[in-house]
């Protein structure tokens, strides 16, 4: 309680200073913790990217650039990576950054209780060579390792020890849940969970500041209409996301700006590959039509993606043919064509498969997870009905959705996937590999899609150093997934941000809001 | 008297226990907290480990018993979402809801009584009938829509009032108040109107019908016959006698204002316990949901208990016939 | 919630005379009140439209196969840019005709409202009679259960029932489940006021001489409750039922805002408003305005009727 008194007093004192370059922004969800290793979720990592830094960071175009490491190179023939650390970096509390902090952060982030543990699955050992050199050894050659650790943030070992936060504690929380001590461009000066989080620029930051923000405040606003109202009335400077339907109206308003981009997230339809029979079908309850690839192809041809993009997404999204968007590394450019909308062909395929009269099924859909997810599912229901597949839509909040999918309670479902590594290997590992608990493969492959060649290709892709050979293998798996219609990729979800007209900022495809790229004019 | 009090307190305690039990039996239907707590790259093993760590693999009766054990010592557990003690969070959020409830309660009572008296005295006047009909609009639209329309009109179109939140607050010994800053007061206006509108209509109608009832009584006629002035009759005698049932109903309504602040707080992003609860449902934050429900139950049961006891004290013959005023 | 005047039921008189008096008086009162006539007409008209929606509506919005997504966001009375179709009140994001959707939505709203109130009324009146007449443990248990019920906000009751129903309903009935869950959830959060009022009135009635007399001549408890007490508490029940109907329709809308309402493929008025409010800032005002005005007209008329009914049934207020 005493702490919150102090926080409020500090906030009040700050409010009275009333500097020009104050910046307020609203997001749908509050970062649930300030601990960068406790929770692996976009709101947390996105926010903490402003406060903490990793060895590498992503630039405006998502490319990897030096941060706390100035250089890195492979060791031997793929035994690991050597990172040269930046000298003269200090944490917000003034202590210096060195190799011990990297080792400590590795141990902390790969701990049993850490949510970021899976990032370090390929790592066999981290060795401190000297104060500013660290070797990270991998059990197999890992060409994309530096790409995969951009969100691995470095904590000060001394600070963590002094404050009893040596390991992340997700269940009970510890000092690091509410307090921060990073090396990033901004420091947290007040934190009231669920209400607001106040940031100020860090004077001792090693890099040159390109922003002109003197104070920034994040407030979560869940109701999209309230957020739009807050932007229009000038109560906040920036909102993320702008509801798709409001983009055109906001764009025509001189007071505000709409910034649009393509997100990494691909929205797709999934099938129950393994199921013996449909669960929600009156007449087809003894067979699984989706076991026949022609039925899956029929679904792909039945969905009129251009119409969905035209109306529901209002021209703000792009159709996609595979599990990753064109912006991702390893995208198969030669297979960019998605199945054309062709209801005649869909009906013909269904007839060929023995379902000339169609069949009925249950379509599951979240209603608060992806942009306009429920409306898209509704439209899909209508389009399927036009080729004879009578889908019953069951849309639900996401907290009920995942348990339902895990329990196999669906005949068809909607899924969005954003590859954490920004690489085409990611969805193969999580969505296309035969589920294998031990090897941690296919953990989001709810339908149990299984293809021997894909399973064979994955480890080869993971350890291939040569880019063109790797791409050839990625292309081969894309081809298999397209031919087999493992999923029906629909479109890449758009990113729509809204700001006041006097704000300049940069939108990154991972939907992370980077405060150091903000200019208040 | 004492026996009755003991009996009622005992019953209230049982009510609370039942509420808790029902609450716990339903939590598993709200959803699965584990998905929100683990990232995209979780495995089935992670899910099971976390589940057993949180005690979610135990039957709900056991979970409930553990919750009671903790609650008895003032420990409501740690929020799954925030990783902080639930009691801290509730204490932090309570002032926002209480201030909102107080202001909208005040608006509802003052305006409700004034309009109620007016419509009763001018029973057949045009203005009174118009007020009666117009006031119904407030209860004929869903609260969330009224809130959104108010925001649209006063924040977006006119730009007079803030669209969300509490504005600046000041800490007064652990209590964050929005009463002392201009932005805090401005921020209170729209949400308290949204929340109070329904209660205002209710109180107005109640006062009106009570007044009409009282104005027919012999002693009022007698007072008039004695030549007392109309105003004195209306206010000194009539209004005074209508206030007892009004206060009772208002007391009971105060509890529901706080409970139904959920919607208003969601629309206005008002950082109170109602919003906390809605967020807790979204993230299946069981400790927060449990504590909130217990809090609301304690409040309702407490208000019920007090009202019952008051009635008993005033008129033992009536026993618990307080429903007559409800 | 009810009004105090509800709890002063009509003085016990001989039944037939009471009814005759009430009926003629009723008719007179009704003719005298233009508000009552207009609201009754509006309610009647809306119920008529809802019942005959399939005959009146130009489209069937509940048939997903008949929708053309390219018709989405047509403005009222203007031809659609892609298809050239004209819709009186425009279309929503799915290309559904707003006019037809409102008619069908009203059907669901009225059905949910009426069924929920009926459920609450039967439950509340029964329990209220039992509690008031039998007293003792029966009363204690019923009234404490009522306390528990009051403790849970309706929203929560709905979510609970939703979840439980999902768990126990066979999969093929799930799509119809939402409507029944709404009915039960709203009904359950509403029965308490019926029970309280009926119990209060019963407490007063049961000590009256005519009840004592009935008991003396050997009438059973059930018969006394049904034949003697029930008719005397019915007028407040009727008033509460009317006001509850309006409340239930609104409650359904609120629940839909919180995501536990009627499914979007078979929307009620409340669901339509929930969907429409997302288009408040985007310029498609018709998606929100028309359902909202319909809901307002319906709820307002029912409320006004309830108002009038309360005054009309309480002769002392005139």
Q: What is the structure about, briefly put?
A:
The complex is a heterotrimer of chains A (521), B (326) and C (318). Chain B is mostly helical and 326 residues long.
What does this structure look like?
- The complex is a heterotrimer of chains A (521), B (326) and C (318).
- With 521 residues, chain A is of the alpha+beta class.
- Chain A has 16 helices and 19 strands.
- In chain A, strands 1, 8, 9, 10, 11, 12, 13, 14, 15, 16 and 17 form an 11-stranded mixed beta sheet that branches. A 4-stranded antiparallel beta sheet of chain A has the order 4-5-7-6, with helices on one face.
- Chain A is globular and about 70 Å long.
- The relative contact order of chain A is 0.15.
- The model of chain A is unreliable at 1-19 (pLDDT under 50).
- With 326 residues, chain B is an all-alpha fold.
- Helices cover 74% and strands 2% of the residues of chain B.
- In chain B, strand 1 and strand 2 form a beta hairpin.
- In chain B, helix 1 packs antiparallel against helix 12, helix 5 crosses helix 8 and helix 6 packs across helix 8 (182-215).
- With 318 residues, chain C is mostly helical.
- In chain C, helix 4 (98-134) runs antiparallel to helix 10 (221-257) and helix 4 packs across helix 11.
- Classes of the chains: A alpha+beta (521), B mainly alpha (326), C mainly alpha (318).
- At the A-C interface, helix 7, helix 8, helix 10, helix 12 and strand 15 of A face loops of C.
